[in-house]
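Homework help thread (please don't just give me the answer)

Our assignment gives two proteins as sequence + structure token strings and asks us to describe the second one. The first is just a warm-up. Here they are:
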Amino acid sequence: MTLSWIDGLAADSLAVKDRGLAYGDGLFETCLVKAGQPLLFQRHLDRLSAGAQRLALNLDLPLTERECRSFAGEVGEGVMKLIVTRGDGVRGYAPASNATPRRILQAGPLPAYPEAHAQQGIRLFSCQTRLAEQPLLAGLKHLNRLEQVLARSEWQNADYAEGLMRDISGRIIEGVYSNLFMVKGGVLLTPDLRRCGVAGVMRAEILALAERENMPARELDLHMADLQKADEVFVCNSVYGIWPVLGIEHLNWPVGPLTRKLQHLVRGLLDI
């Protein structure tokens, strides 16, 4: 599948002056598409809108939404990636006040994740790459993913389906391409992302599900010592849903009942 649009038109090349290429000046969303419909799309739009406001991108959100829905209709089934950059710029960091954001849409096939990841669980690799603390960018899915690139390059062993990332102070933050939850005493816990990390769409959906199902949930600082006390651990994103975590380093956990309950609820949202 090679479908791609730039600013609403079929295209596969980009201006060399684009600030997304030069500085990572922009945002992106990766969305599952089924039957021509982008799933969890309002949450993707909400995060995109919040990111555009924080980066002062003059993004036409209604136009972007219309293009994404039309593009998803062309995709049918697969993964849709939306990249929004600040557009073209001259040399230098200072953005032009009248810059016109560029909208890039790309399609890809559904990822072939092993069903065992969801059913039997996965093990996490303990990444040495640390996430820098930058509250101005915390939570955003911005275009600079070099920390994740370095972290993902740390392992090639297929025994690990995902890696665990911490910040420079040692706090647990997230997976390389997922968010992390743990369960302790029936309470759902997930790392506080006010310093760094990506506030995932599926993470937001799970917190909303927890509230609706009267499951106690908290966002707080978590460390490896907290993992040692966890009853259940799982990771999530908006493409594969939820994967139970069986262990990391010397720590091990069962696939617990709260993880299974949330998996069932999430499968209905993603039709998987």
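The one we have to describe:
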Amino acid sequence: MRQSIIVSALIASVAAQKGGGSIVSPYRKDDSGGSGPHKASYKADPALAKHTIYSPKTPPAEPMPLIVWGEGACANQGTAFVNLLTEIASHGYVIIANGPPGTPGSPMGSGSTTASMLTQSIDWVAKGGDGGKYGKIDMTRIGAAGQSCGGIEALTVTMSDPRIKATGMFNSGSFSTNPNISKVKNPIAYFLGGTGDIAYKNGLAEYKTIPATTPAILFNKDGAGHGGTYGEIQGGLFGKAGVAFFEYVFRNDTKAKSAIFDKSSPLIAGGFEIQTKGWK
């Protein structure tokens, strides 16, 4: 089944590049450092040369969750989703994206990435490769996420690596029935862009097949398409939804919980339809 998941990832990559819709909405340069309490930035680290690291410029005293990120189209370009990832990092996260830095907002990169690069990122931190340069990292709070083909990379490692405690599927979903989805026990969220999103049917179908006991969320914004709002300042509405998911899962934040579960939440007011299941 692992082989079929990898094949699905390749299909997703081709579809995203051949008229299936842009993987990033029109890019707007964002120098805000994110809306969170810890202004963030990205950098390359020669000790992990095939990746891009997002983190608070001044790390908080408390240990931060780690998120490993797979790029849309499995592109070897770690700054395609720079606004989104900077926004999440500004709330006190270290994010390691597949691919070295490139042109911000551009999905193009030389070559492609693999799910194993997400595992490489986790192993690098676990072995102390980061040297504490990016702040304290809590290895009990690790998330895997990605957009389109990168989401399939994230799901692949989620089903094989018990260190991952939450999964974010941004405009993503398996391209065929995935019986191994039952292996997902920890929280998972799908962020979809309506019927114009090439991943909409796949993501919706996968969400529906997740066991009822698994905490799951479906965020869907009709009309957003495959590119979501990632190119907007601070990642736009999809950025707010991503922050809410991780803040609720990793910090049990009450504001994040309200954003997801309250019918009058700003996410719903902004156009998201939100479905949930499996939460206690």
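TA reply:
I won't write it for you, but here's a hint about the kind of observation we're looking for: DSSP finds eight helices and nine strands in the chain.
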